[in-house]
User: Fold these one by one.
Assistant:
Number 1:
Amino acid sequence: MEEIKKKVMLSGIQPSGELTLGSYLGAIKNWVERTDEFDNYYFMADMHSITVRQNPSDLRRRTLQQLAQYIACGLDPEKNTLFIQSHVPAHAELGWVLNCYTMFGELSRMTQFKDKSSKHKDNINGGLFTYPALMAADILLYQPDYVPVGEDQKQHCELTRDVAQRFNGIYGDVFKVPEPYIPKVGARIMSLTDPVSKMSKSDKDPNGSIHLMEKPEDILRKFKRAVTDSDTERCVRYDPETKPGVSNLMQIYSAVTGKSLQEIETEFDGKGYGVFKPAVGEAVIETLRPIRQEAERIMKDKAYLESVYKEGAKKASYTAEKTLRKVYKKVGFVER
Ligand code: TRP
């Protein structure tokens, strides 16, 4: 019988901050669920992180911690290729080539560049500007069918498609043109203090986000303080337009307990926010507890972590280099 080739899925997260409850519920949890259905590549985008100045020892620690957390969240390294971006030189190599096929005007329109350059006015470096060409390389090297990303990365994924099509238009079918895979509403977890913006690992307000490694008492405190809405009805009802705070807490509670929004409304009918908010906190604590404990255990097992990222880099390089060789040949580089 002919073997059915699985579709390929690839994504990465920058180790530029602590992974949050939003990273878990919005991204990693979905990756775990799709383990068997797809051929998966997930990486720590450390090369992207240095577009903004990083403390070297923090970057190193967070990169390894992120790998430990991926595994602790349930991503099985036997079934998923987990690797560190800088360990696969083909990213930098293809990144350079694609820089030459990405237009200044296109890069100038990227909203993340505009955002980050206004936040880091003293360090508007070339890498920050050409970052989407590196991201296109990250993706196209693996010929993925789907790239699961958040809404904020959609523009970069569209640019990747444009660059792939441009390259294919000149040289023939070299790259698969991937589809972004944006999770449906519900997976987008918002800040606890500003529920109209996304829960972010680079949020300046520590009370807005929950880290995967956070202590239970801190989690509970943040949920108790979470912003609810100023409407007068004060009841647990899902309405993201007029009640973004409560709706976000309901989404979180739903994601960690598996209960539907309707069931949650019924459960807290007639009970105030004073009952609802700590209940969400407790449910989150129970979800994160085993993840935190497992990640702490794995972090201590340096030899195991090393074996995972070495094996991951080997597997990733094998695929990536195949694509890179094709590209080098097409553009006219002499074979090594
Ligand atoms: N740019 C992404 C972010 O900031 C991270 C990233 C880098 C990525 N390369 C990627 C995501 C490739 C998906 C595919 O979140």
Note: The pocket of tryptophan is lined by residues 10-14, 45, 48, 135, 138-139, 147, 149, 153, 156 (CB under 6 Å).
Number 2:
Amino acid sequence: MKKNDVIPLEITDITGQGSGIGRVDGMAVFVPMTAVGDKINARILKVKKNYAFAKIEELVSPSGRRIEPDCDCYTKCGGCVFRHISYDEELKIKKQRVYDALTRIGGLEDFHMNDIVGGEYPDGYRNKTQIPIGRDKNGAVCMGFYGSHSHRIVGTGECKLQPDDMNAIAKAVRSWVEENGVSVYNEETHTGLLRHLYMRKGFSSGEVMVCLVINGDTLPYKDELVKRLTDLDCGVTSVVINVNKDKTNVILGKTCKTIFGSGMITDELCGLKFNISPLSFYQINHDQTEHLYSIAAQCAELTGNELLIDLYCGAGTIGLSMAKNVKDLIGVEIIPEAIENARENARVNGITNAEFMCADAAKAAAELLKRGTRPDVVVIDPPRKGCDASVIESIASMSPDRVVYVSCDPETLARDLKIFAEKGYITKNVTPVDMFPRTQHVETVASMSRKP
Ligand code: SAH
């Protein structure tokens, strides 16, 4: 088998990331955007020692599990990977991905695997979008999403994962750019002004923040932009500029300037009000977050007497949603704006038993251990790369009765649960929660108890 060969292939399996697998003489061939049961002619793209990558050259006989993808951009932009199969099928694949990671990478055996919690609305759920702005090969302004594993912008009128309001706002911003001749960013030459359109919506409050990420300090025609956006009737309550003059793939810079409104959104989650600044993390699927937090709360088994540590707490949302059921809460987070939000969020909700530390999780955990802090329960919700081993070491040394791990990456979760197991923490319950329908991503809550 070599590059550019076209071979007949039957898809017999699928990875958790949504790539179909066919086999040739025992060698796995990965073909994205296929379904189990597809018979295809596959064009080989790359051959490794024990496996190969291919793409569909021709769909000879489609699997009965296929559905018609309902987005023009599907397979072009890097967002969705499961639009060609039913949502039920997707949920099964995601649950299996979590199970496989925990057993194969994590070496876990005796845990209880709950069913995956699927989203009621697999479309229109994203409360945040970041749309790159550039030019297409004909020089026209192009806004959309990056192609899979690339920095080429795939222009799209709209995205099904985000609410219609955001699509309407993107359209208005595009007209404003074109009609005023505002310059757009070119990644290669690091010139031009507009880099990204970033939006966030409070699904409970209806408030929308629009943020333009710019390679400069000021935005021309900004009053006109604000007028266009507020005239839209899409709930725009804030317009913000984010300054990012660095030659980097990181979307947001460190400085935000509010040009209209409060500069943040307020939303409600689990019966509490939350202020969320542009630089603070906020879970992107409102309804599924409420499920996620309630599962995390069940795992925490709080009685009202506990000291709870919420590590990687963002704007304080998980810990504050549990605050009335604990004696004391300590939240830790590295982003200063998020910690400011967390303190303010405690105040606006009348929560007085919460303290927040702005620090790196590893340093904070070591510091808390040194102080002799004895938490009963620790909740951790790290970014995709998971926890530093030193964080796990410090948590285990503080010997909480229970640890609740909220994870957006099954593979790093599995790696970390294995380390926890070595430190005497046994994984009991695992619940996948689909926060990101139609994409490859899946969230998981794992509860651990200290070995008696
Ligand atoms: N629990 C929150 C946030 C989870 S996202 C919620 O549910 O909304 C992960 C958070 O970890 C982000 O807010 C990120 O800023 C923070 N973070 C990333 N690296 C960190 C580190 N080394 N130390 C502390 N916090 C970190």
Note: The radius of gyration is 23 Å.
